[in-house]
Specification:
677 residues; alpha+beta; Glutaredoxin; 4 domains; four-stranded antiparallel sheet; 50% helix; 11% strand
């Protein structure tokens, strides 16, 4: 066992028995590299990364390769989910060197941590024009020995370019980036399959969030059509687990049919939120059903006994990708009776030849029940009933298979996203299980990962560790605000305000504007990065900026609004040139240039239930919702907007304020609907 055996990360522990003498990221490795004047080989990946597992089996478990690494390099293994800030820096470096990035990320560093060469996956032998890992190691060894001065000079130049400096301009916010992003997305949109690219195809929640808001602002149905088409095609494809619910990471084809089979917590938080907003906009029950299936899978399979949510499930089981999820035609016909098998196969595209490797089938919706009913001369309700029963039967058989491994570390940032998703699900479904799950996750994070003013990033096996990053604070604040709007527990809003202030103190660039990914004072990273580009999750600056805007509405603190505006202006050049790359920030721009609603519920919540349901089921992306209890003192101190908003005639009353003025308070749904338009 190597040094990784003492780590908590499941990804690092997977490599603890490698013959490679791995070090975790830290001073021990850095000191050894300097003392022995050796280059560092840094390998970055994560637990559910398929090609990370492949490279582990092919190279890191190979004794000959390990010998080369151990003798000539200081090998470091890093879990990108624990330290996305380090991954972000070296990913930028590798893209600048090779023109592409991905995981596993393979980077060669000087002892001063400056990158001089890098790539992604390297095979064990030369193939398809890609040099083998041993070839790369031999070349790096030769260059370090014979051209070290040139390498160190090149590494310094690469490192110097990693800290792209964004500075706030003294401009005025305009809606130009909103219109420009919409125009660009209409040209990029795949009109047949949905989405905004060819293969591979990634879910893009931030783009869909923006388009829903753009539709709400302009009433351009094209914006909503792009959202609903994409969501429909994703849900019908193999990207969506048709049996258990939940979305895989991405599709390797343009039809959403063949997924890369890992399931990430963040995808299954963000996508349900988009589906719920699409339901608010269209009232199509299909979108609500998809969101429910995904969240039910998360609550069922990804929640720890203590309430926090795990990070991911692997793409592979039994050493093969997708084994757990695919079916051959013979299996279906053996499990189900003849008619049920025929209906199931027609609906989910099951065939003898299959649509995946070895004549296997990835389930995806091909024919709707109405068409199947017509083809088989049976009623549509009978087809639907057959499909529901068959799904349960097939899933029961799938559950007997060896399941993909679960990465059971609990990350603050991703739990913040899930708290937000579950809170919004409770608001739509009025189902207590979602509220309880959101509260359980919030309590777990606050009780186990918040230590005074320090929010830790990762918890596993009883240990909280790794200093929180910008996204941990920002995502957690977002989740707590959404949770407050669900249960109106003022203590959750208080913690959100506290964490937001700590975030401002530790991460903001007070001169240049915006927020760094890492807090001040870190010594193990060569560049503090400010970024607002769309990633796999949401950008830290994008979420921080919308939090600041909402907090300004809640607290009447104009400094928070100005800070939100300053954050947007920090990235204004990028917003004008490539606005679609900063979609989450576009959502903040929509909020700041629009007229957000301040909605106050006064009186007994039990008496305002119908009106509250109307508020929650109406598409109003830019709003804050607060509750004014009978005992107002503590609440009005935090939220001055509650002052004097009392129930009229002791009856539940709703106040809707906008653009610094309030409408006449209302006490019934008919009057309320007019104010929510």
């Amino acid at each position: 066992m190597n040094r990784l055996s003492k780590e908590k990360s499941p990804y690092l522990l997977l490599h603890a028995s490698n013959p490679v003498d791995w070090y975790p990221w830290g001073e021990e490795a850095f000191t050894k590299a300097k003392t022995e004047a050796k280059p560092i080989f840094l390998s970055i990946g994560y637990s559910s990364c398929h090609w990370c597992h492949v490279m582990k089996r092919e190279s890191f478990e190979d004794k000959e390769t390990a010998k080369i690494l151990n003798q000539n390099f200081i090998p470091i293994k890093l879990d990108r989910e624990e330290r996305p800030d380090i991954d972000e820096v070296y990913m930028k470096a590798v893209i600048s060197i090779s023109g592409q990035g991905g995981w596993p990320l393979s980077v060669f560093l000087t002892p001063d941590l400056q990158p001089f060469f890098g790539g992604t996956y390297y095979p064990p032998e030369d193939r398809y024009g890609i040099p083998s890992f041993k070839t790369i190691l031999a070349k790096m060894q030769e260059l370090w020995k014979e051209q070290r001065n040139e390498i160190e000079g090149s590494a310094k130049k690469i490192a110097a370019n990693l800290s792209q400096e964004f500075r706030s301009s003294k401009g005025k916010l305009t809606v130009f980036p909103l219109d420009a992003a919409y125009a660009t997305l209409t040209t990029q949109f795949d009109t047949v399959n949905g989405g905004f690219s060819g293969a591979p195809k990634f879910p893009t929640p931030s783009l869909l969030f923006f388009l829903i808001r753009y539709y709400n602002r302009t009433k351009k149905t094209r914006a909503l059509d792009m959202v609903t088409k994409t969501l429909t095609k994703m849900a019908q494809g193999g990207l969506n687990d048709q049996l258990a619910g939940g979305f895989h990471r991405y599709s390797v084809d343009r039809h959403w049919r063949v997924p890369h089979f890992e399931k990430m917590l963040y995808d299954n938080a963000l996508l349900p939120i988009v589906y719920l907003e699409a339901w608010q906009a269209t009232k199509n029950p299909f979108f609500k059903d998809v969101a429910k299936q995904a969240l039910d899978w998360v609550v069922r399979e990804m929640r720890s006994d203590q309430g926090g949510f795990y990070s991911s499930q692997d793409a592979e089981s039994e050493g093969e990708e997708g084994t757990y999820y695919v079916w051959n035609k013979k299996e279906i016909t053996q499990i189900l009776d003849k008619q049920s098998a025929e209906i199931f196969s027609k609906h989910y595209g099951v065939s003898e030849e299959g649509n995946f490797e070895n004549n296997n089938n990835i389930l995806h919706i091909v024919k709707e029940p109405k068409i199947i009913a017509s083809e088989l001369s049976i009623s549509e309700p009978d087809v639907k009933q057959s499909l529901e029963q068959s799904k349960k039967t097939i899933l029961k058989h799938r559950n007997k298979r060896i399941k993909p491994a679960t990465d059971d570390k609990i990350l603050t940032s991703w739990n913040g996203l899930m708290i937000s998703a579950l809170s919004k699900a409770y608001q739509i479904f009025d189902d207590e299980q979602y509220l309880q799950a959101a509260e359980g996750s919030a309590d777990f994070i606050l009780n186990n990962l918040l230590d005074g003013k320090n929010l830790n990033r990762r918890w596993r096996d009883g240990e909280a560790a790794v200093d929180g990053l910008l996204e941990d604070y920002a995502f957690m604040v977002m989740g707590l605000i959404d949770l407050y709007e669900s249960n109106f527990d003022i203590s959750k809003l208080e913690v959100a305000l506290k964490l937001n202030q700590i975030m401002v103190d530790l991460f903001s660039d007070k001169d240049g504007g915006g927020f760094y990914s890492t807090k001040q004072g870190r010594t193990d990273i060569i560049a503090r990065v400010k970024d607002a580009y769309n990633g796999a999750t949401l950008s830290g600056n994008g979420v921080a900026s919308i939090n600041l805007a909402k907090i300004s509405e809640f607290t009447s603190d104009n400094d928070m609004r100005l800070l939100s505006k300053k954050t947007i202006l920090t990235f204004w050049d990028s917003l004008e040139s490539n606005p679609e790359h900063l979609a989450q920030m576009l959502c903040t721009l929509d909020f700041l240039t629009g007229k957000p609603k301040e909605i106050v519920i006064s009186g007994k919540l039990s008496e305002s239930k119908d009106m509250l349901r109307e508020i929650r089921q109406t598409l109003i992306p830019n709003k804050v919702v607060a509750y004014s209890p009978d005992e107002q003192n503590k609440h009005t101190k935090i939220m001055p907007m509650l002052e004097d908003k009392l129930p009229l005639n002791n009856e539940a009353t709703i106040y809707v304020c906008q653009n610094y003025s309030c409408k006449r308070p209302v006490k019934n749904i008919i009057a309320l609907k007019k104010l929510l338009i």
